[in-house]
Amino acid sequence: xxxxxxxxxxxxxxxxxxxxxxxxxxxxxxxxxxxxxxxxxxxxxxxxxxxxxxxxxxxxxxxxxxxxxxxxxxxxxxxxxxxxxxxxxxxxxxxxxxxxxxxxxxxxxxxxxxxxxxxxxxxxxxxxxxxxxxxxxxxxxxxxxxxxxxxxxxxxxxxxxxxxxxxxxxxxxxxxxxxxxxxxxxxxxxxxxxxxxxxxxxxxxxxxxxxxxxxxxxxxxxxxxxxxxxxxxxxxxxxxxxxxxxxxxxxxxxxxxxxxxxxxxxxxxxxxxxxxxxxxxxxxx
Length: 285
Description:
alpha/beta; 32% strand
């Protein structure tokens, strides 16, 4: 079991959890993920690791409350224990050295661009980080990300902060202005990552995306996270999660990710979710 060191709802419906996991913190690399079970009856959920501290022995994940297993995680507080935390899983990101890199993050993916920006900056690359949200009150971690990039750009759907639009609109503008970009990294929802790949394809800018298919064991044994990349079947858990966005079969990925949302909602109605004793109106710690 792994003890929760801190937990906070950082913006509405997006939560940060810091977990005591010294062995994981000592080995974690940018782009890798962990699988967490809130309790013995919860699902095995994959989460990108948004930060870690090898000296303190902690890792940090940022997650969106989306179903009954993430609701169980929301119910927990500092001092509680998670049933299982497994990792580091997946291949680390391919960190280019001395290049002009763009890191794009949206929603729960904003947290995951922090270690990526940090690693690229440490490798001598010029790093432009772009984060997006629907509105300014949903933006988070600007102060944590800014020290690890040369330029931080913001996009909001309603134009309340930064430019109106999305990260892929900002990338498209940068390309239109003739700015040199050697590599783009995109982390977020499937649609956002696909659109980033769409806008960079005409210019041939290599675009790496962190895919988020359905996943169970995280070791390549179950096959649930299979994706088609370059016409070949890959497993996101062991071959990824980072792939060349220009080679991903986005239609197939979208169909697979759309298989269970209704079942998630129905699980609450069918009584599959069991409230944690800590559950109350205020889930922030």
